[in-house]
Amino acid sequence: MSLRQILGQEKAVRILKGILERKAVAHCYLFAGEEGVGKDLAAREFAKALLCGRVAGDACDVCSACRRIDSGQHPDVHVMGGEERQIKIDQVRDLGEALSKKSFEGGLKVAIVREAETMNQAAANAFLKTLEEPPAQSIIILVSARPDLLPDTIRSRAQMVRFYPLSRTDLMAALAADSALDQQELRASLAQGRLARALEPTLCQSRDTFLEGLRQALRDTADADQLWKDRDDIDEWFDMAILWLRDCIALKASGSASQIVNVDQASLIEQMSGQASLRDLSRVLSHLFQTRDLLRFNLNKHLTFQHTLMHLKSVLS
Amino acid sequence: MKLVVSRESLQKGLQVVQGIVESKSTMPILSHILLSAEDTTTISATDLDIAVREPLEARIEEPGSVCVPARKLYEIVREIPAPELTLETQENNWVTVSAGKSTFRLIGLSDEDFPTFPEVNAGEAVEFPAFELHDMISRTLYATGDSDARYTLNGLMFHLNPEKGTVTFVGTDGHRLAVARKPMPGQIREERKMILPKKAATEVRKLTEAYESPVHLTLTPNHIVFRFEDILFITRLIEGSYPNYEQVIPKNNEKRMTVGRDDMLGAVKRASLVGREKTFPIKMELREGAATFSSNNPDVGEAHEQLAVDYGAEALTLGFNARYMVDALQNLPGEEVALELQDSLSPTVIRQAGEEAYFSVIMPMRI
């Protein structure tokens, strides 16, 4: 991979290549954009381009530095976060210490902070210390799908580079390259511009499982423990539920199936949301958004389930 | 790559790098050593802060290089009874180790994954007598900070000043400062201020302890390369600027007190026995010809200790952290120490009496 090969992020790539070509690198960037649109990839490729130096404005992808960054073995590239639910203060301190040393191979040092918004308060405050007086020759790349959750003090010290959801054409092109993936039209819709999501092998099955679960729950024959085995399940479920409700609203408002995401389920959508008014549907949708936003805290699973189901039952049948 | 090597020399070589190789690192490559056989054979290991490259006596049957898990290879070499081992690389970085009737196949890593060592000849070179390096590091290392958020304080300042012709080591944690200064043995073109990480300084101190020849240093922008005959020891430097330590050293402390080093050390240690833990505050009352050290702790009691000293100025009372005082006294050479004082809240200088080479500065406490 190299920067120019990142799909569907022309604008962000143009900005990054410009930075590299002008050699005007700031000390901290914030790569912001939805989950699965290529931010982590871009961060790695940007790091490669910064340390490679064989091609102007991009990574060569063949030199030893590029290959070691790819395999996570480069001594001057530090990656933090993205593994656990929180980034803790010790990790931030370790990173600060790593950056306080001069670079091992003599060039720049790059720190990539994945899911930067998961820094807890203590970690964020400690991180601020590093950001305020960045060690020389160090570039910090924050990656976040929820930059709004980052403290202002951190956000204001970083240069934001925005990543946007991919166009349907780009998604379809990427999907076409892998014939093992079924129902490509539906995939491209469900992914909502997120390439990583579109490429999940089980995307369509999870949608079907969700639908099955939703119908059982509406008939009171499924409970929280059955549907939500872990946190990922819950996140996934809310993603699907929001899309489903969005479809109900789209179908009701436009009266045409051309606007819906679950392209293969038009009749079921109509049947389930038959009686509900647009106003009620959008009220429930905003409830779902709200609850999803609260999921980053430790919500009680059963209460969350009951609460959500109560709202869903008021509009869906 | 194919090598034939004596068990003894391989074991010795591996032993040297065992301490550097990390076992619980996030980067798997760091738990490996790089075996490289080109014109000669070398073993390299690094934990990214420090790196070692040493020669290995071996018969090269086929040149090449590969990364081998350090710990496992060491364990194997230790258990093998045969006097000679053959190491050979195979496809996908597998390494066969055979000796007598035993054969091991180890999963290695590509030599390309190993961190590239800095160019060891790209910088100015100086030579130091090993005992001087050892002495200067030993007498200043204690004062460096420990996991301080001001990262520069967690290292030892190594200052080469060609204008004054001096080499200075400085350690400080913000409360006390230790300085060792000597004439520079060689010449360099420009002034260099380098901050050695504490771990590296500790290793250099160990390596110089029993070493008799001069140590050859190469100063690159990011590293210092220490050469001990065939062994290369490379350390990364700490980024950033060290506090201006010259400014901290008081220039006009006129009140002087001289005393036997061991006498004062004993007095301070005893007086601090009942003091509060953590900060160990002790009070030092000076009057003509005598000093009294005392401490008290409402939970325990009091301690007083009298000591005859050489002091002629007006009476003065100061408070100190006894720990800092003990550290400073313990790490000064010579039998007599001189304290240079100003008033009860100004920094105090403690030096070997009549010597400029070693001294320490301690901030007093309010008592």
Structure description:
Chain A has 317 residues and is α/β, with parallel strands linked by helices. Chain A has helices spanning 10-22, 39-52, 64-70, 89-100, 121-132, 152-155, 168-176, 184-191, 195-198, 203-218, 224-227, 231-254, 266-272, 278-294, 301-315; strands spanning 28-32, 77-80, 109-113, 138-144, 159-162. Chain A has two domains: 3-162, P-loop containing nucleotide triphosphate hydrolases (Rossmann fold); 202-313, Zinc Finger, Delta Prime, domain 3. The N and C termini of chain A lie far apart (48 Å). Chain B is elongated, with a radius of gyration of 26 Å. Chain B starts with a strand and ends in a 5-residue tail after the last strand. In chain B, strands 14-11-12-13-26-25-24-18-22 form a nine-stranded antiparallel beta sheet. By secondary structure, chain B is α+β, with helices and mostly antiparallel strands. The A-B interface holds A 64, 67-68, 71-75, 93, 96-97, 99-106, 129, 135-138 and B 27-29, 46, 48-49, 112-113, 115-116, 118-119, 147, 149, 151-152, 197, 220-223, 236-240.
Give the helices and strands, then pairings:
The complex is a heterodimer of chains A (317) and B (367).
Chain A lengths: L9 H13 L5 E5 L6 H14 L11 H7 L6 E4 L8 H12 L8 E5 L7 H12 L5 E7 L7 H4 L3 E4 L5 H9 L7 H8 L3 H4 L4 H16 L5 H4 L3 H24 L11 H7 L5 H17 L6 H15 L2
Parallel strand pairs in A: 1-4, 1-5, 2-3, 3-4
Helix pairs in contact in A: 2-3, 4-5, 7-8, 10-12, 12-13, 12-14, 14-15
Chain B lengths: L1 E5 H12 L13 E6 L3 E6 L3 E7 L1 E5 L1 E6 H10 L4 E6 L4 E6 L2 E6 L16 E6 H9 L16 E7 L4 E7 L3 E8 L8 E6 H12 L4 E6 L3 E6 L2 E6 L8 H4 L6 E6 H11 L9 E7 L2 E8 L3 E8 L1 E2 L4 E6 H9 L5 E6 L6 E5 L5 E5 L5
Antiparallel strand pairs in B: 1-5, 1-7, 2-3, 2-6, 3-4, 4-17, 7-8, 8-9, 10-15, 11-12, 11-14, 12-13, 13-26, 15-16, 16-17, 18-22, 18-24, 19-20, 19-23, 20-21, 24-25, 25-26
Helix pairs in contact in B: 1-2, 3-4, 6-7
